[in-house]
Amino acid sequence: MSSVGGSGGSSGSSGADSAGRAEAARAEAARAEAARQAEASKKAAEDAAKAQAAQQAAQAQAVQNALAADTFTAAAPTAPVDLNPSPVSAAQQQAAKTDAVEAAQQAEATAEAEAQAEANKTAEAEATAEAEATQEAQAADAAQETAEAEATAEAEATAEAEAEATAEAEAQAAAQAAQVAQVAQTPVVFEGAVTNALAELPAAGLARNPANTQPTAQQQVANTRLQTALNELGYVARSHVTGFYGSITEGALKSFQYENGMAVTGRYDAMTREALAGALAEKRAAEAQGIRAPEVSLPDRYTAVTDAQLASIMPNSTAARRAEMLGPLNAAMEERNISTPARQAAFLSQIAAETMDLQFMSELEPDPDLGAYYGRGALQLTHRDNYVEAGRALGVDIARNPNQVATNPDLAASTAGWFFESRGLNQQADQGRIGAVTLGINGGYNGIDHRLSAYDRALDVLGAQRD
After folding, report:
1. Mean pLDDT for the chain?
2. Compositionally biased, Low complexity: which spans (predicted)?
3. Are 212 and 161 within one domain?
4. What is the distance between the alpha carbons of residues 272 and 259, in angstroms, rounded to a whole number?
5. Based on the domain organization, do 167 and 26 belong to the same domain?
6. Domain, as residue range, for 340
7. Which one, of 267, 33, 9, lies nearest residue 159 by Cα?
8. First vs last C-alpha separation in the chain
9. How far apart are CA 201 and CA 206, in angstroms?
């Protein structure tokens, strides 16, 4: 989170705390004032009750004194001398005393009742004040919680907005960096370089030589010039520069046309000649300018090919054979970094062509010159040296028992994965160079049409990006 988001959250929380403390102080002051008033009211009631009781007692005493004066003092001058009061006077005196006592008791009871009523009023006032103070405190707490929640929500919204802005900025920066890198990886090709390359190529119109025929000397020269260009571009091996325009030269041209988005005919026409000249000039410019193909970033986690995807890539495969081979193929691809859609498409399309969609794990018509080491497995491992090298890499002595490469699904897949990686075909697949992949596996272009159609399906099914 940026400093802007952090400062906003802190200020909101501090303001809410101050408001809460102010509300709590006001509630406490209210409670104290209510208690003081209640105490004053109680004391006033008690003082009033005492004063009333004293007044009533004084009145009773006055009555008693009056009676005594009337009986003994006021009557003395006229009454005969009789020291014994009459029974009536004694009864009156006793009644007056009783009335005075009752009046005093009643006054005291009244005072107590009034004091209790005042105390009840005081208690009610205190309870009301306390309830109001509690409500105010709760309201203050709720207000503080609301303020804190609003501050938190605002801070989170700010953080989210900042994160979105950061992500957008990073995406833009990455796109710009990729654009810059793309520009940096594109060589500068001058028109003169293309003109020179065109001069090296034969005129358009060369055709494939029929099998078991010998081209004329002029045709051989023209074929050799074309094959030399294809060799420089990586479509044929040096041993294929023979002057004979056969299936390998035709397959190389088909691969070149496919990779460059042209009609795949295998014919050396004017458009193909122009494209070859441009490719030669660009390759030479890249080498002169020190530009290499960018490395591909591999995914952190392998994404397995599904049965449905495999069935689409190899429509002639059976469910039973796919069930047998899918797990081993995924294990081999994961182990050998055949982990991008482009690499998987190249790998599986070659297997589709080599095994006729997983139908055959062994060469149908093996070359007698190969002895026991003819083509077997998902990519038709061939030659004794390859069996020995693969066995060492996998820790299995397949050279002693080569047939297990055809009968063991794990070995059929693992030998294919080992060969694909060890021959640098992952890197060729990264650049979409299906011709170089085919040449690396087959040594030529047998079944090139099957390979290209399977590759097309695989690219679509696996979601590989096309250049």
Report:
1. 84
2. 13-22, 50-79, 90-146
3. no
4. 12
5. yes
6. 307-462
7. 9
8. 39
9. 11
- Residue 466 token pair: 């096309």
Same domain, 311 and 265: no
Give the whole-angstrom CA distance, residue 287 versus residue 283.
Answer: 6
Pull the structure tokens for residue 299: 């995914």
In terms of Cα–Cα distance, which of 294, 16, 11, 288 is closest to 142? 16
Rounded to the nearest angstrom, the gap between the alpha carbon of residue 184 and the centroid of all alpha carbons in its chain is: 32
Pick from 403, 441, 401, 404: nearest CA to 421: 441
Distances in Å between the Cα of 422 and the Cα atoms of 237, 268, 307, 410, 418 are 18, 33, 26, 18, 6
How buried is residue 272: exposed, middle or buried, by Cβ count under 10 Å (0-12/13-18/19+)?
buried
Among the listed ranges 148-152, 321-325, 399-403, which one has the minimum average pLDDT value?
Answer: 148-152
Q: How far apart are CA 304 and CA 313, in angstroms?
A: 14
Q: What's the whole-number mean pLDDT along residues 348-366?
A: 96
The token pair that represents 44 in the structure block: 């006033």
CB contact set of 323 (below 8 Å; sequence gap of 6+): 307
How far is C-alpha 95 from the geometric centre of its chain's CA atoms? 102
In a domain, 143, yes or no: yes
Any idea what the CATH number is for the domain that residue 391 is in? 1.10.530.10
233 falls within a domain: yes
Query: Who wins on pLDDT, 146 or 314?
Result: 314
Collapse the DSSP code of 397 into the 3-class scheme (helix H, G, I; strand E, B; otherwise coil) and give the result: coil
Question: Considering the entire predicted model, what is its pTM?
Answer: 0.61
**DSSP structural state of residue 238:** G
What does the alpha-carbon distance between residue 333 and residue 248 come to, in Å, rounded to a whole number? 28
pLDDT in tens, 277-306: 999 999 999 999 999 888 888 999 999 999
Instruction: Place 12 in a pLDDT band, splitting at 50, 70 and 90.
Output: very low
Cα(429)–Cα(342) distance, integer angstroms? 6
- Residue 81 pLDDT > 50: no
**Among residues 205, 270, 210, 194, which one has the least CA distance to residue 246?**
210
Helices (H) and strands (E) in the chain, counts: 15, 0
Backbone angles phi, psi at 274, to 5 degrees: -60, -45
Does 296 map to a domain?
no
297 is a domain residue: no
